[in-house]
Amino acid sequence: MMISSEAEIVVWAISSICIILILFILEQVKQKRKIDSLKNEKATTELALLKAQISPHFFFNTLNNLYSLTLKKSDSAPEIILKLSDMMRYVIYKGQQDCISLQEEIDHIKNYISIYKIRLKGIVNIEFIENVSNPVFKVAPLMFIILVENAFKHGVEKLQNNAYVKVNLTEKKGVVTFEVINNYDGGHEKEIGNGIGLENLKNRLESTYPNYNSLEVRAENKEFKSKIVLMKPCKR
Predict the structure, then answer these.
(1) Distance separating alpha carbons of residues 204 and 222, to the nearest angstrom
(2) CA distance 154 to 147
(3) Cβ distance 165 to 126 under 8 Å?
(4) What is the pLDDT of residue 2?
(5) pTM, whole model, 2 decimals?
(6) How many CA atoms lie within 13 A of 207 on its CB side?
(7) Strand partners of residue 217
(8) Which of 23, 85, 218, 233 suits a disulfide with 138, CB 3.0-4.6 Å?
(9) pLDDT at residue 18 above 70?
(10) CA-CA distance, 64 to 50, in Å (whole number)?
């Protein structure tokens, strides 16, 4: 009788331990899923905030261009307004998408450059060379434009003479390389290499292309070079 009772106690104890262990494991799994869910929500929120930070920065510079033209009562102002309208439409609608075609991003950059060409009337050497084998290749929107903005903001806007901006975009075998080179007046290396635009760009690249991107920025001999490499298409 005593043995039976002891055996029952042992069985009960083992059963209780197993139940507790199972409940513990289930709770850990539940907690992990909750944490993963919160991480995903946080990542989504952070990415949305990064996009929201980049877009006003872009429009601030563009509206400054238009303001200068209207003060001068330039005949080019209506064309600028149309191009600005196209860019606003792009940012508001395409900019909120996870992925867009490479050609759409190219057209957006061309509109931006066109505004500067009209405003500066050829006194700045601006080149945009593209070599794209697949124009429908998917990329995240509003990433490349940050490098172009920096080139004009820290180079063209602060140089009186002989300013230049060279943009080179290539897409080959699923790899996109976007490089911008511009000259500047010297003494602004920290400013042009550590702005909020570049910091946001780094964060967006890591969020959208983890382990499949590179961003290089360097300043030497009064020339600033920045390059983005995307090693896979956008698939969000």
Answers:
(1) 28
(2) 11
(3) yes
(4) 45
(5) 0.72
(6) 22
(7) 226
(8) 233
(9) no
(10) 22
